Amino acid sequence: MIQISNLTKGFGDRQILKGVSLNIEEGSVVSIIGGSGSGKSTFSKCLIRLWEPDGGKIVVDELDITHIADEFKLAAVRRNFGYLFQEGALFDSSSVAENVTFGLKYLTDIPASEYRRIATEKLALVGLQNVEDMRPSELSGGMRKRVALARAIAAEPKYIIYDEPTSGLDPIMSDIINDLVLDMKSKIGVTSIVITHDMKSAYKISDTIVMLYEGQFIMAGSPDEFRKTANPYVRQFVDGSSRGPIKMKLRDF
Amino acid sequence: MTGKLVNLLGKKVITASAGLGSVVQMVMSSVFWLFHAKIEWRQTFIQCMRIGVNSLPVTILTSCFTGMVLALQTGSTMKSIFNEPLFVGSIVSFALVKELSPVLTAYVIAGRAGAAITAEIGTMEVTDQIDALYTLGTNPIRFLVIPRYIASIIMIPLLTVFASFCGVLGGFLVAVLKLDVANETFYSDIFTYMRVTDFMHGFIKSFLFAFMIATVSCYMGLTTRGGAEGVGKSTTRAVVVSMVMILVIDYFASAALIAIGI
Question: Per-domain residue ranges for chain B?
């Protein structure tokens, strides 16, 4: 279980997270929704200490990880997490198989002779075959996302963070990714934290949806509660309307 | 007006100090991980190939032509003063071994391999690949920086030695074929005056250049921000800083080495 309380993070004068609190139950899928620049990715990066939070507390499986300074202890905490980056963050100079098994050397004691088999197995789990020797640059956007997902689950983490898993994908590929998220839950039993602004995806995969607006969680609830909410901010966002209390900051050209 | 100037100056000093602090932190972190984790030998080998082997042709060309032009200029000047191309071997070999080979090799590596290091790490930074390293159980110092340090510190001094040899060979060809210097005269010009410490003078400096190029290139890569434009800016900055630092280090290192008799 992950408990986040009063988490704050800013860059210079800009306060991105203004004291957010959230409990993530084991085996659940929690989607964090919000507009572009609302701090969703900042939240997810603070969660595994890729970025240092300014304040608050993060407890993972009863261990307070907020102030761990020792690199080895921090690496041990991160071992529990798989992270699917927005653009995949695959290593261009390595093959698909090398990408998928990259973390095994550092995160597990599995012998290198097993890596190829594991790569094939994890790639099959995300619906990819015969791509082991290809380079990431030879893959389509959807395939890259799936390879990145295979890499995130290769070391069989307890938690997976998906940062915008469906952004930039066509609707069919988005739904395939949604099914993969649900598969990860049912087949491996992982806890998923999904950062998204794709409401169709959030409704389909989530046990709980949380909305981040101006650095604070303004609503947490089930997909049904989000569908029926009268909160004007949430309503505007889930309906995808330009009219409402949320004013987007447009750049002047 | 004065207040604004002081303010601006203060900001620049603070930024420079913070940058210097970050560089020191990166170096300290590299030393820590060098002794606390397994060295990435595969990555180190790849970097040795990129920094050393792939830079060999341009290093040969640069040093060979430098030696040739140095012999030509020395010989023709000596001829106009003394009517004989005197000390061509000594001047060419001393200039190359102590000064030109280390500096020119460092320049070639800074422009070629240093820029590539910054561009590669910078691209990894802006595409989340550096963060990915943390989530996969390692970190950029261990996986990227240390192999580049080791490869630079092994390959740049080796290239420098090679450059010295090629430069002297180029000078020899011009001296013998164009200036009509006898083979034996060229050899004796070199071996009568040159000592091992003269060779060590250039060799030691090449280690300092290697360390500096790896530090600047990796640091500029890791601190890249702002997409493709940021990568371009970091790469340019890395090359410019490296080239200026090569000359600064060259003077102070030469002064220190001369002071201790090397």
Answer: 1-36, 38-259
